[in-house]
Specification:
The protein has nine helices and eleven strands. It has 291 residues and is an alpha/beta fold. Strands 3, 4, 5, 6, 7, 8 and 11 form a seven-stranded mixed sheet that branches. It has a two-stranded parallel ribbon with strand order 1-10. A two-stranded antiparallel sheet has the order 2-9. The longest helix is centred in the C-terminal third of the chain and has 30 residues.
């Protein structure tokens, strides 16, 4: 076993002075195993959702409480949870999954205000915040507060009502949890012009998603706690593999330099930088994103 590990991880005469794991055939095997594992995980998630799936615990009440705690700490009136805004948020979430887009404006040009008006909410001011990939309400609200434009919505004195929707499903090719927050204040006879506040994104191209691939959740307690969190499990495996290759490349470079072994091709430093960049991207993306 020790000899096998040395052959696999350290440059030696037995592997032509390059760790076997860095040989092209070993890399191809690793890629094939990753592809097979991804397919297997998807199959297991569909077959045993209680064992493998996305883990999250987000409720509208938690989102509301976190939002209002921040507003009240700054001397602002708390927002009231509005059923019509919540329905508008749920309809927007459903539309995003159905048409497979991650944007404030739908690919067909539908705006957030359309969903709000169709829900029966006659608004004077309105706004929208979006988030995806978070596991709890506090992380969602903290991410919004870290963004100036989203924070402006949360701290706006123009709003009196708010609605939330939390949905899970496949969006732009990834299993995710989507949070939609709709702000508003109702139109009155003394108001003359409705105002809409939203961050204008560039809408991506749509791609059809089957109805079976999505699950819209609208209940008081929104949570899913499988035995194994698929996102964390997958991320940890990828991080482990990347760290393994970075360490092997560092060891390889050190031994080759120390023993003054001459090789025709050696790009250890380039490979280390490339893998390190991928590692950073995985760590950053794993935190969830807002829009």
């Amino acid at each position: 076993m020790r000899r096998f590990l040395c052959h696999l991880l350290f440059p030696h005469e037995s592997n032509r002075h390059r760790a076997k794991i860095l040989h092209i055939d070993s890399l191809l095997i690793t890629i094939a195993l990753l592809i097979f594992s991804a397919s297997l995980l998807s199959s297991l998630q569909n077959t045993f959702p209680a064992v493998l799936g996305i883990s999250y615990d987000i409720t509208p009440n938690d989102l509301l409480n976190n939002t209002n705690q921040i507003r009240q700490a700054r001397g602002l009136a708390p927002l009231k949870l509005d059923s019509e805004l919540s329905q508008a948020a749920a309809n927007k979430a459903s539309n995003m999954f159905t048409n497979n887009y991650w944007a404030h404006i739908a690919p067909d040009g539908t705006t957030p205000w359309t969903f709000i008006k169709n829900s029966g909410y006659d608004y004077f001011y309105a706004g929208e915040n979006l988030a995806r990939g978070f596991a709890n309400a506090s992380d969602v609200v903290n991410a919004w507060m870290a963004s100036p434009s989203h924070r402006d919505n949360i701290l706006s004195s123009n709003y009196s009502d708010v609605g939330f929707a939390v949905s899970s499903g496949v969006l732009t090719g990834s299993d995710t949890v989507l949070v939609v927050e709709m702000f508003g204040s109702r139109y009155s006879a003394s108001d003359h012009q409705a105002t809409e506040v939203v961050i204008a994104p560039i809408a991506p191209q749509p791609r059809a998603v089957s109805a079976q691939s999505q699950k819209i959740i609208q209940v008081a307690s929104i949570q899913n706690k499988p035995l194994i969190n698929k996102n964390n499990f997958t991320k940890n495996i990828l991080i482990g593999i990347l760290i393994l290759f970075i360490v092997v490349l560092l060891i390889d470079a050190f031994i080759i330099e120390r023993k003054k072994i001459i090789r025709v091709v050696s790009h250890n430093f380039d490979h280390i930088v490339y893998l390190f960049i991928i590692l950073l991207i995985i760590l950053i993306m794993g935190r969830g994103i807002i829009l």
